[in-house]
Amino acid sequence: MATQMTATANAQRSSSFLQIAIALQTVTIFLQAVSAGLLLTSSYGETLHSAGARVMYGASMLYVVATVLAWRRGGGSPRPVWYASGFLVLASVQVVLGIAHVPSVHLPLGVLMFGLSVLALARR
């Protein structure tokens, strides 16, 4: 009985951590869109967008960690881990495209990533 209650509490904690990680990722991607606008209109936009890229990438890594912890503690399908890992790959491609200054792919990929992140947040 106590083991079952502990397992339930661990699963709820993992689920809450996962929701926070997805929400953080979604917010950081949205803020990247805002800083991209500032990049075009102000002198400090490039600094903000660069710093935001690092935070967004960290949030994507946190999302992977959260899905692994939720899967390991709660069992179930490892599919969310694959989704989060795929998102981290997209974030990596996004960073490379941003550094290479390829806005024709960088911008649409950012929109896609935001949509996928909102979808993941809505599914939780």
Fold and architecture overview:
- With 124 residues, the protein is mostly helical.
- The protein has 4 helices and no strands.
- It has helices spanning 2-41, 45-74, 79-99, 103-123.
- α3 runs antiparallel to α4.
- The longest helix has 40 residues, at 2-41.
- The protein is elongated and about 45 Å long.
- The model has no long low-confidence stretch (mean pLDDT 90).
Q: How many beta strands in the DSSP annotation?
A: 0
Largest sheet entry: none
> Pairing-aware structural class of the strands and helices?
mainly alpha
- Give the low-pLDDT segments: none
Helices and strands, in order, run as HHHH
Annotation field: number of helices: 4
What percentage of amino acids are in beta strands? under 5%
- Give the rounded overall mean pLDDT: 90
**Separation, N- and C-terminal Cα atoms:** 27 Å
> What oligomeric assembly is this protein in?
single chain
Principal-axis shape equals elongated
Radius of gyration: 17 Å
The helix fraction, in percent, is: over 70%
